[in-house]
Amino acid sequence: MMGDRRMQWRLLRTGHNAGAWNMAVDEAVMVHVARGLSPPTFRLFEWDPPTLSLGRVQSFERDVNVEACESLGVDVVRRPTGGRAVLHDVEVTYSLIMSEKDPALPAGLGESFSLATQGIIKGLRLLGVEAEIRGRDEGEKPGRAAAGAAADAGGGAVRTGACFDSPSWYEVVSGGRKLVGSAQARLMGVFLQHGSILIELDADKLCSLLRFDSDEERAAAVRHLRSHATSISEILGRRVGFREVEDAVIAGMRSHIAPIELVEGDLSSEELALANVLISRKYGSPSWTVHRRAEA
Questions:
Q1: Which of 123, 184, 190, 197 is exposed most, by the fewest CB atoms within 10 A?
Q2: How far apart are the first and last CA of the chain?
Q3: Residue range 70-109, pLDDT digits in tens
Q4: For residue range 176-205, what is the model confidence (pLDDT) as tens digits?
Q5: CB neighbours of residue 179 within 10 Å
Q6: Is the pTM above the cut of 0.90?
Q7: How far apart are CA 109 and CA 132, in angstroms?
Q8: Domains assigned to the chain
Q9: d(Cα 283, Cα 286) in Å, to the nearest integer?
């Protein structure tokens, strides 16, 4: 990087990688930002193979249909952030990592959430997708969203471990339906926000990966998900590529954070080395993904 580093963020485009690697890289960057060794970082990435990510304290035993994941070739990982299950398949995923002391980071929840998502919204508009942030004054209280209880069109209650089944506070929606699902964490004095920008949504596939008490509940969850979430391809009525979405999001972020520059770079050798350690000791380990408990 050249110029004033205080006015630059690093852009990483790390492509398609396994779920454990993607989560380990986020944490490795966090550690290096905390140590003052890495700059504020905005990363865009994808997943290969498709991966079901669980919230930090979500129950693996209660929510994951292991047999379906295995038969469909879907990995399972656990995020360092909260929330419910997300199927990372045909999407672009983003993460924003920066020091909590960075003057560019607002203090409030909504304002800090907007730091990344307003840039994403500007990028979506370049694609022809109109979206907005659904704030705390516009919808349900967070306890309802966190509970995972969703009302089916027929009036019955559906228990689902899926993140995209309803917009909660500070989500990006288009036409009232969730388009970008995000989660936040503040650890080690570092701010992390990451989320999924849906290019396509396969409600049947996602719900097949989750446990339900009956086929009727699963079918109701599919209907509910389709009515409460959407995708870029559905909105535009055409197939959209990963690179097209990435390019638009980068342009939107550059516009939003100006005069801060977003400068493309690479992971450092130290970040990559730590990520590999975190894969073996944490994100690729059943003790984290399967057996972790809320109190751990």
A1: 184
A2: 40
A3: 999 999 999 999 888 999 999 999 999 999 999 999 988 8
A4: 999 999 999 999 999 999 999 999 999 999
A5: 27
A6: no
A7: 16
A8: 5-134+181-202+239-289 (3.30.930.10)
A9: 8
State yes or no: cis peptide before 39, omega within 30 of 0: no
Tracing tokens 């969703």 back to the chain, one arrives at: 150
163 catalytic residue (yes or no): yes
The one catalytic residue in 30, 96, 98, 163 is: 163
